[in-house]
Amino acid sequence: MFSFQWPWLLLAAFTPLLIYKLVKPAKPSQSALLVPFYQQLETFTLQQRSLSRMRLSMLLVLWLLLLSAAAKPVWQGEPQPLITSPRDLMLAVDISGSMETKDMQLGQQMVDRLTGIKVVLNGFIQRRKQDRMGLILFADNAYIQTPLTLDHKVLAGFLNEAQIGFAGRKTAIGDAIGLALKRMQKSPEKSKVLVLLTDGANTAGTVTPLAAAAVAAEQGLKIYTLGFGADEMLVKSFFGDRKVNPSADLDEKSLQKIADLTGGKYFRARSIEQLVEIYQLLDQLEPLPIEGKIVRPQRALFYWPLGLALLLSMVWAAIYLSMQYSDFTLLKKTKKARNVS
Prior knowledge:
Helix 3 (113-127) runs parallel beside helix 8.
């Protein structure tokens, strides 16, 4: 819907009319002058009157366009719910060497753990549209892949670009928690959440996971820990197939303690389906924001009348200069004809 934010400014459109009615016109001069080239001069005078009327019309159009721009024209869209979220949510994803284990079934094929995580996390990110979300990747070291942002398309893109081995082959869980603390320490949001996903134990880094979790508890950072990986898989060998536990190195006790210290929960996912269920459960534990006020998005349109006024001014300047040149040429010819006679 089209409207003006300052419609009262449009009342000034009548200002030129009021000036015309209230201000007395100047008295024309009554003196006469006898000239031998009266016909040429009459033609020149008619052109000047035509130019004056054109100038007046152009000035009125420019006046109306400038008033329209000053009145702040806007286009209002359809009513939309305003959703606010007092939450910062950081994702910490393990990209150590063990994440390349192909013990996850996706459709009809077996894929590595990181691929399964990407599939599930993309859906989770899309549902958290009103949360500020960030991404930490960790292995030998932890680093910020995406700072806290509302641009979830960029976040998902950086997640999909993550590769095993980017940060080494080991697992620095404590450093990942410490980095999340550092990034969320000055956050103005009251609710701060870290979702940490790993398939192993802390084998690198300068900070122990429990020490980092203790600091997180003091600073109000809630941590949800997820242990990911199958309990068994078939491995082919010279003596035939045998079952092994690919998650033997998963330190579930530490992950449980981290969650308990910070008021979060620990989850165990042995398949992609279970991981999907866990993230759906996280949506319930950290509910999506509730719709609040209704707002109408607005798009400013002042630049249209303003741009048109500028364009007309340039056109008028070109016309005026052209007519001035024509008048100068006419006077020059008249003077030359008078001298010849």
